[in-house]
Amino acid sequence: MRIGVDAGGTFTDFVVLHDDGRLETFKLRSNPLSPAKVILAGLEQAARNKQKVDVVHGSTVATNALLERKGARTALVTTAGFEDLLEIGRQNRPELYNLTPTPRRPLIPRDLCFGVNERIYHDGTIARRPTAAELKRLTTRIKRSGVRSIAICFLHAYQNPANERAVLAALKQNEMYICASHEVSPEFREYERSSTTAVNAYVGPLMESYLGELESARRFQIAIMQSNGGFLSAREARRHAVRTVLSGPAGGVVGAMETGGRSGFRKILGFDMGGTSTDVSLADGAARETTEAYVDGFPIRVPMLDIHTVGAGGGSIARVDAGGLLRVGPESAGADPGPACYGSGTEPTVTDAHVVLGRIQSLLGGRMRVDADRAAAAIDRIARRLKLDRTAAAGGMLRVANSNMERAIRVVSVERGYDPREFALVAFGGCGGLHACDIATQLGIRSVIVPQYAGALSALGMLMADAVRDYAAGVLGHDNIENNFEALELRARRESPRAHIERSADLRYRGQSYELSVPWKAANQGFALFHREHARIYGYSLPKREVEVVTIRVRARAASPKPRLVRPPTQTGTAELRRVWIGSWRRVPVWNREQLTAAQRPGPALVLDYGSTTLVPGGWRFHVDRAGNLLIQQ
Fold it and tell me: What's the pLDDT score for residue 554?
């Protein structure tokens, strides 16, 4: 048995792949204070009497610790004279026209940044090694500081890690969580490498504790989804916690690619609208990756899927700002208390707006009823502030939320050089289907796909993912790139002997301050791909200009067994009629998804599933295709 688990802000999703290939899915309300208890309860419910169960889990522990500043008390050990590195950063101004910006608070305060008298030159030559006396003084200062975790990052350690290793060996006696930049992110650029190592140290102890609690149930073999779309073992996740920062959304990207491909679409835009946030992504035959991600303003230099997140979900709270404008999100009602219609919350949310407009009457396939009166009371507070009626206020909330999500899709498409009109929109998450067609209309997209198990597609994507390990080396200024690739591949084959090896490289024109990553088989081919990609993104290329190789990358991918998706048997029945607001109050047919066939049906209509609801507006037609996906087209 294999189980995929996605811990969301409102619900925790479970997808179970049984021995006979049958898929089962269910949801439990999340518990932000103790997510592991919910996950263990769900695993016990799913596994029943099975003695050995493989679990792939998308964890939010690292993400939440980073966003909420609840990580471990951490020290930074760096080259003497560079103790201010994290505080200075790049000196960029994220708010260009704000004359009184709030200073960004670094993860590690200045008094916990310790300098060591060591120096390595840019070519890897060791100019000064830390002395035994210096290491002893450093150990004493670290012990007195009361930290739980240590990040080590020396100047040019990606070229020669000898000094980092010496300090690592000296500090390991303290029995703290320790990581060094040559293990976490052995790449060029001092600030980004230090930031990545600091984030890893900041969230690492929490990940260790969390995984220890999950592994207390010995029959569950836990693997953790990475931000790059593959999973890694729990042991590796402890050492490289920074690679799990966007692990849940990464599962959704994998699931969207697989399900969209089975319906014949190579170009897809993933649209994952959950309870707390919306994650959007783009795949043109393959998912886009980046090594220049920012999470809450902190650069993270590890391979990650290019996912853009906005604070717009079913639990996003609406408010009227000081200027009298309606705002939705990024604050969320989360799982506790949740939207007003759940029975405990009082704040007006996007889900409450759908309840008021007749689009939601129950959740989880009818197992969870909603409180329509409580939702109406919450929306009425917004309506009074805006001097509107209840219906207009609810409709306005949805338009504002749609606008936020439409901008997010433009970030991963238009701003990356892609035309969204050439793509299909794969909508999933509990609320994705309710907003997908409206957003597609605004972007000129003509096909919307709502997959099977749309409400738990991220968890399903984790079962579709492969085991992946990434390796990188900074090679700026090196002559023989092939030797460097072979050294990385030797390490990859030693640690993942049955894996398929993939090469890529980060290239730039000499004099540029940014790189583009392209597949690499030979130098001529890599340079040609770089010129083409540069022209596609920036509108020009310079084939006669010298190209530099900055970083080389090797990926070891070991394929895992994939669940087989089959079209579910059709159940007979007719649609019921429900009074729903779709620009005006109308009685529209409401279908259970199991009732739909390959026959085309016109909108408007509602389609209900266990974990999601889909709204098909007028002017669109829908049917279930051979892959079992709900295909909606203009």
Answer: 95
